[in-house]
Description:
alpha+beta; four-stranded antiparallel beta sheet; two-stranded antiparallel sheet; 21% strand
Amino acid sequence: MLTPTDPRGRPGMRLLVGQLTEAGFIGAPLWPDRSIYRVGDDFLALVSFAGCAVRIDPTGQGEGPWCRVGIPRPSARARPCLGRNTRAPRCHECRSRLEDWPRRLELWHSQPRSGWRCDGCGVVRPPWGWDWGRRGGFGRTFVEVEAVFPGEAVPTPALLDLLTRASGLSWRYFYVQG
């Protein structure tokens, strides 16, 4: 999962998709809604896979996992992207864990302008202002590499540079298991 570092950032989607297509990261859209794409011819040059026997299927017709890239429409405001592998985020100031984050997240959905107070040092910040590590994050815009196990692949510096040039925003990545 890739998203701008500032979760409130919203890049121009036409330019972003155009640049990702031109660079060979994504190929043709799979369905008319144009939110899920085939991997492009240079996908494997822009994503570094761990291990020596990488098996992905770019077509959905072969033997490996069917790898594709989702680029859903941006949401109106920052939203969470969390999964069963998400762990309690840490405070950037004192490194305390926010163990009750699921309850706070549920409340935040009804009051999205509220911040979360750290039990360790008292600092208040929005949910995306906590250190979620590589197991979750917030954003309005996401680039989702589907059918890749968490930690199995890392975006190359070239891909992160491409996203930055195409959007004018810095990007981060993390892994979410559904």
